[in-house]
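anyone seen this seq b4? input:
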Amino acid sequence: MTKMNRETVVTEALDLLDEVGLDTVSTRRLAKRLGVEQPSLYWYFRTKKDLLAAMAQAAMAPHATAPLPTPGDDWREWFLENTRSFRRTLLLRRDGARLHAGSTPTGDLDRVRHKLGFLIASGVPEREARMAMLAAGRFTVGSVLEEQADARPDGTELPDDVPVIDHEPAFEAGLTLILDGMTHRTAAQDTPAGA
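predicted toks r here
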């Protein structure tokens, strides 16, 4: 039996996720993996939803601990790298995007505020900064959902008539469009009316 604490339960649950996928993760399977009775998991997580939320937060640790922007950083380069970091983190776990989708960054709110403050201080209008962060986040989750759905864990090949998408260049193209929109909106704000 594994010595249990909240962190161990989450770590084992994430390992189970990587092995069997989100649809097959259950508290019954997790309890068996830990060598305990299923009700003992409720000491740490009252519901499966609580467990999934903790798993989502733990899975985001690589992105959540990435360096925050500093005043001297170029906001465009930072925005690109921040979004790429988010994508890389989602891809670290099987079904990482599905696990993350719909989760609330409760432990990350100060970091989100810092990032928004950085964009605003860099000259991006507040509304555009908020919408761009939201759009980039949702675009990234959607892109990774599609990428992970295309991964075929059973090793079967796609039929020849199904086009294969090269996900990274497609992601980069979409990310560039979001950045171009932000840059355009920011430049439009800086241009005096009638100029």
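Residues 126-150 form the longest helix (25 residues). The radius of gyration is 20 Å. kinda curious what u guys think
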